[in-house]
Each structure stands twice: as C-alpha cells, then as structure tokens.
Design brief:
The protein is α/β, with parallel strands linked by helices. It has 3 domains: about 70 residues; about 280 residues, Aspartate Aminotransferase, domain 2 (3-Layer(aba) Sandwich), CATH 3.40.640.10; about 100 residues, Aspartate Aminotransferase, domain 1 (Alpha-Beta Complex), CATH 3.90.1150.10. It is about 40% helix and about 10% strand. It has a 7-stranded mixed beta sheet, sandwiched between helices. A 4-stranded antiparallel beta sheet has the order 8-9-11-10. Strand 2, helix 8 and strand 3 form a beta-alpha-beta unit. It is globular. About 50% of the residues are buried.
Length: about 475
Amino acid sequence: MDDRDTALLRAHEHAAAWLDSLATRPVPPRATVADVVAALGTDLPDGPTSAADVVDLLATACGPGLTAMPSGRFYGMVIGGSHPAALAADWLTSAWDQNSALRTVTPAHTAVEDVTSAWLLDLLGLPPSGAVGFVTGATTANFTCLAAARGEVLRRAGWDVRRDGLTGAPRVRVLVGAERHESVDLALSYLGLGAPEVVAADDQGRISVAALEEALTDQGSTSADHGSTSADRGPALRDQGSPSRPTIVVLQAGNVHSGAFDPFGAAVEVAHRHGAWVHVDGAFGLFAAASPTHRGLVAGYEGADSWATDAHKTLNVPYDCGLAIVADPAPLRAAMGMHGDYLIQSDTGDPFEKVPELSRRGRAFAVWAVLRALGRSGVADLVDGFCRHATTFAAGMRALDGAVVLNDVVFTQVCATFGDDARTREVVRRVLDDGTAWMSGSRWHDRAVLRVSVSSWATTDADVRASLDALARASAV
C-alpha cells in the first residue's frame, strides 16, 4: 500500500507539472521516438522496480516527447483538451477500475450512463427513446451505428445477417457524400460492405440532395447481380418477393476541412422516401445542436436513424470516448448483443448490448462530469467560443499577405492557402518550428492548405492572438 500511495503521489506531481507547463511550453514535442526509447531503456529488467520509480522514469523520459494537445494553442486536429471535471472523473474511473458491461454488476456506472444518455439525447435534440453506446471514438461509433443499420436494412429485405452472415445476402448499398470522412469507409470495410457509392458534393463538401435523389432513384445492381437468387436467401425473403435494394445513406455534420454541414432536412426526407436508413457522422459537429446560436446547422438531423460523435472532441473529455446513438434500440441490440451463461444479465438490458466491447472502462463517468460541470448553457458557451475563435482566426489570416481563406467559416474549421503549394507547406513548417502553436497542413480541393481546428476549452483570446502572431512570422517568407 505504501508503494501504491507513493506512486499515486508522484503521478499527481508529474501530472500537475505537465498541466502547469501548458500555458508556456512549445506545443510540438522536442524529442523524437528514438530519444524517448533511449531515455526509457530497451532492456527488460531482471527484477522488480518500485511503482514510484517506474512513474518517475515514465514521466521524465516521455515529457520531452509529448505534444501539448491539451494546450489552448493546439489546432492541428480536432482534439479537445480535457475539461478539469472530466479529467478528475477520469482519474477516479481508473482508480475504481470497473468493467462497465453489466447493469447488475456495476450499478454505479450504469446509473451514471443512464442519466448521461438522457442528458445527451435532450441536449442534442434527439429522440428520447434512443440508445446511447459509449465507445472508443467516432470511428467505432460509426462502425457500431452502421452495424445496426446493416442488420436492419437486411432484416427488412428478409435476411438475418446475425444468423446467416453476408454470403448470399442481398448486397447492401451505401451512399456517401464526396467529402465524407474516410473513417466511414473504414467502418464499412470492417462490416464487409465494401466501398460506398459516392454522391456529388458542393465546394464546401455538402452533399447534393439532387444528386442523392438521382442515385436513390437508380436502384443500381441488386443481390442477383452478385451471384445469389431469392431461392438462395431462404423462405422469409422468397415470401416477400423482390424487395428494393437494402440501402444506407451516410450524411455529415461538420466537414473536416470546411466545417460545413449537409442539408439534413431535405437529405433525410429523400433517403427515407426511398426506404434507406440514414446515419449521421458528426464526430465534432454533432454538438452544434447544443448551441441555440448554431443549432440551425443541424436542422432536420433529428429525423435520421443513427448518429456518431466524439465526446473527446467538442465536449472535451479525455481520450478515449465516442458516442454511438441509435433512434430505435432494437437494431443496435440485435447487432451488438450476446448471451453468456456466466453473465449476470438484466431483463431491462445491459450496457454492453450497445457497444462492440464486452470489456470496457467506465467512459460515462467523465461525460457525466463535464455535462454536470458545464450545464446546458455552459456547453452552448463552449461551442460558441470555438466558433468565435475560428472566426477570429479567419479574419486574422485574411489580413496576412498572400493568405486566402478557402472555406465559409460556419463552425470551428478554417482552411487557408499562402500562395502556391510550396509556399503553403513552407508556412506550415515554419509555424511548427516556431512552437507557439500547432496548425497542421492538409490537402483540400487538390491544394495544399493550412488547417486550423478550434476544439479546446482552454483556448483563450490571448492564445488566438499569440497564434496569429506566430502565423504572421511564419508567412513572412
């Protein structure tokens, strides 16, 4: 016990020193992978080491190799810094060490998950009867929701994918916008659905409703084109005749470059009219719904069938935490649920029936903590603050010689060029070398861009000013 207490004390001291350093330390790391490996040592010791000494070695060796992602000056990816209440709750989560799969076994976490789920559905304006699964991140949230979608659209076509698999099944058609995030394609690959069909998008990345309707009207190839017939697919499907092709439409809340949102009202109506399941990938943009000022960006999205987002992005809880939300709990439980004789399962349903993992940490604790700390108005202020900072960044960039902001700044993303690709890449390199802020390079519309993503509760007006000053220095080339 003394070893444990000393180790925890050392960890607290190192953590506090790290957090205190964020206001002034350079954002990029100052050590390479090789540097950190050398500091850690490569030989596994023959004997034990005290827990406190292990913590000291880990902190001192890794410190120079850490990127100041929780800093108010990190804009390189959509990464939220950990809110103090969520961070503290996450420490408790590790200390409590609950495998939060079963309602009866872990009543504390289940209660928090139930309360938090209701708060999230209310805050986001989603159906109150929906199911919320706490997963690792938006990629897994997309996978979870699309698994529910796959099972349901095949069920409607008379096919039980849980029992019969995909061999011989009607081929599921998935339509996506041209600028969806690649994690959607990855989730579809995991699910054995293959590459999606791409629908045209406008210059901000918003899906074209006219193109979507045209694609849906053209049913394309059916399952028979892939080597199966109704006779192969069992009596349930034969009795129904030839159903229209099982279809999923994936929409987007927050384009990773422009921040733009698909026109949900019209797109959802068109998709549902053609019998499709509608999924919304809203890794960082879903929380626009929590702001009265920005709620219009997601107007009509509540009519979809499922939604994916990250709590460790806009909501600023520690890594890792994503949210898979499905309007009808039945398809989600059908896709994710299981039975084990050794499991003490509840007649009212268990948390593990909404997620891919049976073993999982208590992610709802940190989400509950940040929602309880901020309240409804605080979450709205958080979102509005990100958007205000993004607008300030855009205005500051436009004042720089040769800079052009390429996107309509409607949410938290800003993309700019500084002339040709070579000069833009050089500006990105110089910003990172300066160390004041982290702004990543990317490629959008076949051009090199500098991308700013404002996502941290810790970002202040002073951080934005200092970051723009660093960008001005970097662009003076």
